[in-house]
Amino acid sequence: MGVAELTRPVVAAPRRSARVILRRLSRDGRATAGAVVLAVAVIGAIFAPWLAPFDPNDQTADILSSPGARHLLGTDDLGRDLFSRILFGARVSLFVGVATVLLATTFGVFMGVIAGYYGRWVDMLVMRYIDLQWAFPNFIIAVGLVAIFGTGLENVIVAITLAFLDDFARIARAMVLSIREEDYVAAAKAVGASDQRIVLRHVLPNAVSPLIVQGTVSISYAILGEAALSFLGLGVKPTTPTWGLILNDARPFFISAWWLGVFPGLAIMLIVLAINFVGDGLRDLLDVREYFKS
Amino acid sequence: MQAYIARRIIYSLLVMWGVATLVFFMMRAIPGDPVQAFVGFEGDPAAVAQIRRNLGLDQPFIVQYVKWMGRLVQGDLGASIWNRQAVTVLIREALPRTLALALLSFAVAVAIALPTGIVSAIRKYSLADHAFTFFAFLGLSMPDFWVGIVLIIVFAVRLQWLPAFGYEPLGMGFWPWLSHLILPSVATGTSFAAILARMTRSALLEVLREDYVRTARAKGLRELAVILRHALRNALIPVITVMGIAFALLLAGAVVAENVFAIKGVGRLLIEAIINRDFPIVQGTILVIAGIFVFSNLTVDILYALINPRIRYVD
Fold this sequence. Notes:
The structure holds two protein chains of two kinds.
Chain A: H1 3-6, H2 18-26, H3 29-46, H4 48-51, H5 82-118, H6 120-134, H7 138-149, H8 153-180, H9 183-190, H10 195-231, H11 243-249, H12 258-286
Chain B: H1 2-28, H2 34-39, H3 45-55, H4 61-73, H5 87-122, H6 127-141, H7 144-158, H8 174-208, H9 211-218, H10 223-260, H11 266-276, H12 279-307
Helix pairs in contact in B: 1-12, 5-6, 5-8, 5-10, 6-8, 7-8, 7-10, 8-10, 9-10, 10-11, 10-12, 11-12
């Protein structure tokens, strides 16, 4: 047996190629439905400037008109077309969802790997921090951070990212701890592989599955979080059309214009439901349930 | 046991100290000056300096920190910059509303989750199970505040069964109090009911495979007795731990619901203070909310150790 075989990771869930995963996922009805909805939303968000019948901030003479042929989902108190605003809102929601999760994964995994790999006081420091954050719901942390940093899209992204940090750090650390003692890591060390190489080649590939699942779930939480922050007036600037903000603006008109209160929320629900369906399919497929026991 | 409890209490106090310190320094690390932001950037520099002196903000950080901590230990959270009202007084008024809302939301969640979770587990893969699973996904995917909005549109505006906004203290009568809290607690409880129902289902399914359940069935017990007396009792242990944490989560939900339903609770106090940049109130409410979380975590840990003696850690 050569060194190459010895150092190849052989632990944890079997790694499958992306094509196999996609094929199996397509057999899961719920996950497929979720993926289709998600694809439509992403396309809608990207091509919003071409697909939207009106400019999202254009004020027309049709004030508070109910859903109909001209305005598919009706208009708001300033005569702005609700469908166009929801379409543009998808851009912010999806962007916040993906951006926060990418950032949280990067920094969280870095923290977790450092803690797990180097152990001792580094681990103790990181774990105390994680424990501290673990004691509080993510949404409260995000609200607290926005209170400190101030409102605005960038601050919302930073706040939600920080609120998620502990979830990813925890997974990465647990993976490192379970893999660190494996024979092939000892073998890699014995042949003189650097720490960096061991982490990148042997530890991280094994942590990918649970991180993908956590990432998917977190995207939906981030979208819900951004919507709630915007609804509370702590999110993006008032001119940006986002789902939470549209709902916040609609508050005085719930009695006269139900569509303003219903459709933006339906949009949030559909996207989050779609992501949850896909996430659940991935979780079954990648068989990562065990990592979620805390 | 006493040593375990003592250790947990000391740890909780350390967490609180950590949170307080973090909040203190982060509030002062904000780019820009809270007083300047409060007065407005055109504000008279002399007035700004006067307010800073009044609030003690002209002193070095460490002096401010020690003074602040000293007052905090005595239960003094400072006063609002807007109207000089004591933060503790504001919180004392708001807290019962938030706690009532969280408690009722908890009741709503349990009332929905336990029966549906049990039915789902007993009739696995039946039509009811599939329906409940779908509703659970739906419950997890709907933003709390939007559920609140829809409830207001349907039950307050259209049907006019329940009030849409506000809060009545219990002293004004039971029904006025309850009627104002029904919609908000359903809005807050829904998503948690979804999580709890799924947990109950999977915990019960696991237990139903155990030998002692087979024994209970074999000795001829009725199915209902098997489920309620043997299976459910054991299945509920992990569920109960989650319920403790859940109460904290529902408090977070209350922050949002209070803003939808215009209830002057701690959450609304916090959000208004953030928008008004009233930083003593922001600090105070964050600390009180943190205190509630730490206290409920502590209670859960102690209760859990009492229920299950195996986990009295000796580390």
